[in-house]
Amino acid sequence: MITDIELENRIGVLSPARSFQLNISSPSNIALERVGGFTYLEGAIIIRITKNTFKAFSYVCTHNGCILGYDKNTNALVCPCQCGIYDLEGNVIRGMPVKPLRQFTVQREGDVLTITDNYGDNTDICNETKW
Ligand code: FES
């Protein structure tokens, strides 16, 4: 099982900025044009859940650090390594992970999404001195 420090190091790519933007109409983000599409950026998996709803999570499985994907048929984040499955709130619903997935806030203004990591306030894996 991945340690808290290892996990933090893998998902710490958002720090120190803890926020980034992406334009969903950019050719590099073409996967986000359709519902069910997803992309990876800055340590996050960004998913278009519905026409107007986007979600973002750390793409690192909390069990052993594999990179997660999104299954639009089950509306779940899935780990290809040991079949860990998370719901769209980041809760573990099946498999080896015991910790929830780190979720980021997504704000949309036009075609621009702002992804922000607000995790520093309420997590046991966050070491404030590293931010
Ligand atoms: S790394 Fe084991 S379930 Fe994801």
Folded structure, characterized:
- There is one protein chain.
- With 131 residues, this protein is mainly β.
- It has one domain: Rieske Iron-sulfur Protein (3-layer Sandwich), CATH 2.102.10.
- Helix content is 6%, strand content 34%.
- The protein is built from one helix and ten strands, in the order αββββββββββ.
- The longest helix is centred in the N-terminal third of the chain and has 8 residues, at 4-11.
- The radius of gyration is 14 Å and the shape is globular.
- The structure holds FE2/S2 (inorganic) cluster (FES).
- The site of FE2/S2 (inorganic) cluster has 11 residues, from loops.
State the domain count.
1
SS-based class: mainly beta
Q: Radius of gyration in whole Å, from Cα?
A: 14 Å
Low-confidence region ranges: 121-131
According to DSSP, the number of beta strands is: 10
The CATH fourth-level homologous superfamily: Rieske [2Fe-2S] iron-sulphur domain
Q: What percentage of the residues does DSSP assign to strands (E)?
A: 25-35%
Briefly, what CATH class? Mainly Beta
For the sheet with most strands, the description reads:
6 strands, antiparallel
The molecules bound to the chains, other than polymers, are: FE2/S2 (inorganic) cluster
Helix and strand element order: HEEEEEEEEEE
| Overall pLDDT metric | 85
CATH topology type: Rieske Iron-sulfur Protein
Count of helices? 1
Q: Give the % helix.
A: under 10%
Strand arrangement across the biggest beta sheet: 1-10-9-4-3-2
**Coarse shape:** globular
